[in-house]
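Question: Send over one sample?
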Amino acid sequence: MTTADSDGPLAEQLLRLTRRMHRIQKRHFQQGGLGITPAQARLLRTLAHYPSPPRMADLAERLEVVPRAVTTLVDGLEASGTVRRVPDPTNRRVIRIELTAHGHRAVAELHGARRAAAEEILAPLTAEQRKVLGGLLDTLVDGTPEEHRHGPDEEQRTC
């Protein structure tokens, strides 16, 4: 069993890795000439996952921020031509946010920048190390050990 003190260095490593990932992504955003902030990038990626244009309140909830923060992000993205406000077809008081054609291209570039950042970070790892890391990250993201993610009829993998 581990204690909070023994997990401290590991927690610090995770935070440093997250910061490094953000710095590398930001550099790729700048190199690609996207001209958007990491917060705007997150909103664009989130918006791209909706099957139809969401309300700003929906985006705020999904991003776990206050609605005013989404308004500020949308204002900047609308000025750059990546999103637009559109009226709801069934309730004229509701405004929805949709990606423009430029916004769809920006999302594709964002995905490329994220992949490039991940490749840069993972470059020192062997294929086996990447496989192990993937399994560990799955466990951390899911919050359950790998052996508990398999159904009763599935053969369990071992590393």
